[in-house]
Amino acid sequence: MPVESRISLLAATRHVGWGAVSKLRMILEKLPEASVALHGDAHSVAITRRYLGPQHTIEAGRPRKFDVALVINDPPAVNGIADLGVPVVFVDSLSYVRKKDSEFPPLDRIAYYCAQKYPTDRFPIAGPLQNRDNVKWVDAIIPIPQKRRGGGGIVINLGGLYVHNLAGVSDDLVNRGVDAYLELVLFPLVELLKSSNRKILAICGNLNEAACRRLRALVPDTVAIGPQSGGAFERILTDADLLISAPGTTTLLQAASIDLPTILLPSENRSQIPNARLYTKPGADLGEWPDRVISNADFERMRLQGVGAVYQYFFQSIINAAASNEAAGAVRAVIRRVLTNAPADGILDPGLRALGVAGADQVARLIEQAALRHR
User: Is the pTM value of this prediction over 0.90?
Assistant: First the structure.
């Protein structure tokens, strides 16, 4: 593409785990000639840059104007970007999570609202997304599936773990919540697998250095531990025999696309609770938190109070559970039950493959259309 015709793209993501940033990475791979700048404060931009890695060129300075903006799972960012006079392409992989109209971005200020397909027989399509020309349903935004080899053992995946720059949710609360999750879920899981002589191939996720050191003392040197690049994670999954994962959307759909048997760990954040119920076989053991840790009734009540209230409740509940021998024992019992009763083919709904795998390319083409119309 000639320099004068390159798309100038402004990109914004919400930093809840790695889901939004991983989608940004895959979409940018379909726009190799785009000139990309990141929206947000220095902290959020640094997080995005770190995840994208050196293979993606991000402009150091912002151009005077943009041809188009890409916003992923971050409704509050839409108005500020649209005020710049830039057409916005919004990607929403969590439309089924939004409970109130106010949780959706203003659709009349969006060029294309790209809603990722999901099994709508479980959760109906939200009212604001019905009968609108600018709402486009796109395939799953995941890597193009590679043939699974298997034979490598078990992969444990915790994904992004952390939440950044969320109003009303302090970094201290998030950090303590993540540490508590590792104590309640990850380390007991590794010990259970070791005691049953199960082979661990990798323990993936946004693990801090202290957790990585502790894990290295527990498992053989051949086990991959900690954050992995997108390509490395794809290769690890193709070598796996079983995935034990927190229920992040991208990971579950990626596992389903290569027929990787998968079982679930307790949820790490608000969207993972409905994810577990949406993407699994009816009647499957979802590895949900014991009611004494996170109550469904309390969770639903907090959802109606807004995102900040949900995360405060979520992280504080996990912190409290880690401080209680009784609650920690109940969580270990859940993990033991999930491992013991895991079906050979896992618990993911086999119908997920019908959702397609071309979402990144479909979004990239809509970005190009919006940019060309704006010029």
Answer: yes
